[in-house]
From TrEMBL:
HAMAP family: DNA_YbaB_EbfC
Pfam families: YbaB_DNA_bd
Family membership: Belongs to the YbaB/EbfC family.
This protein's UniProt keywords: Coiled coil, Cytoplasm, DNA-binding
Organism from which the protein derives: Aequorivita vladivostokensis
SUPFAM superfamilies: YbaB-like
Quaternary assembly: Homodimer.
Protein name, as recorded: Nucleoid-associated protein MB09_03010
Amino acid sequence: MFGDLMGMMGKLKETQEKVEATKRRLDTVMIDESSSDGLLKITLTANRQIKTIEIGDALLEDKEQLEDYLILTLNKAIEKATNVHETEVAAVAKEGMPNIPGLDMFK
């Protein structure tokens, strides 16, 4: 019984380390998003850290329009990054979960 428990604990620790490694790797995965007319371009990591923002000159003339563009484009970029992040981390976590009867929520 304790051997099984120790084996599960070891597997959980290994899975946790793999999840952390995946999160570090996601710092290098870049997500690009642009406004429909290309006047605003945003790049962020799959860990949702903004790396670059490029603003077209036409947007600099209208503060309200720029704010709207930033909100829309940032939200789209964050949604994409979140999807990549959650998919990658869930895949690693699912792979390393021990087979515990009744806990099949990750399958």
